[in-house]
Write a sequence for this structure.
């Protein structure tokens, strides 16, 4: 099915990736972006914003019953901006999760973003959509369709050819 998250399991698949306030504060925005760029993914949207309570609560609504939910919303809305992004490319949803690493950074592969840059589950610097349905929901929540660019990077054939 084709949604705002593109078409699942094709080169148009999209994921919502967000650098959280601690990542912005610690000035690792460039390093995170660089990893996705160098892997061969395409940046189709990016913005810096301080999310409203309403937006943060809705983004994490599935966790509303968890004891850490109020603290999580407070962290995301603390006043330091988040960097909201949409990345596109083959298997981006699954690969994005692998690149980000486990929720608890102490369990994250040392080569992953969380495994390289953080040590606390409450300050784990980055979010990545965990499935096609959540990518669709999250991209729609954080971006207007007009904000999503449709363009072809010049190196695309060098990145995507299968033979
Ligand atoms: P994910 O970010 O790896 O998808 P989720 O289980 O969806 O992990 O949780 C969302 C976010 O909630 C985590 O990234 C982390 O910031 C926070 N979180 C999850 N579990 C805990 C916890 O046990 N204590 C504090 N914060 C947590
Ligand atoms: Mg999650």
């Amino acid at each position: 099915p084709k949604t705002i998250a593109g078409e699942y399991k094709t080169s148009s698949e999209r994921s919502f990736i967000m650098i959280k306030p601690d990542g912005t504060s610690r000035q690792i925005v460039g390093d995170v972006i660089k990893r996705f760029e160098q892997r061969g993914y395409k940046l189709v949207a990016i913005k810096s914003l301080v999310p409203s309570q309403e937006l943060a609560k809705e983004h994490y609504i599935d966790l509303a019953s968890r004891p850490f939910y109020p603290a999580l919303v407070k962290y995301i809305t603390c006043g330091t901006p988040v960097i909201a992004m949409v990345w596109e490319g083959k298997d981006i949803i699954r690969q994005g999760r692998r690149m980000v690493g486990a929720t608890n950074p102490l369990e994250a592969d040392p080569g992953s973003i969380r495994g390289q840059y953080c040590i606390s589950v409450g300050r784990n610097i980055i979010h990545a959509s965990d499935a096609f349905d959540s990518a669709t929901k999250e991209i729609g929540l954080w971006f207007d369709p007009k904000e999503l660019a449709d363009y072809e990077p010049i190196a695309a054939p060098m990145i995507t050819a299968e033979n």
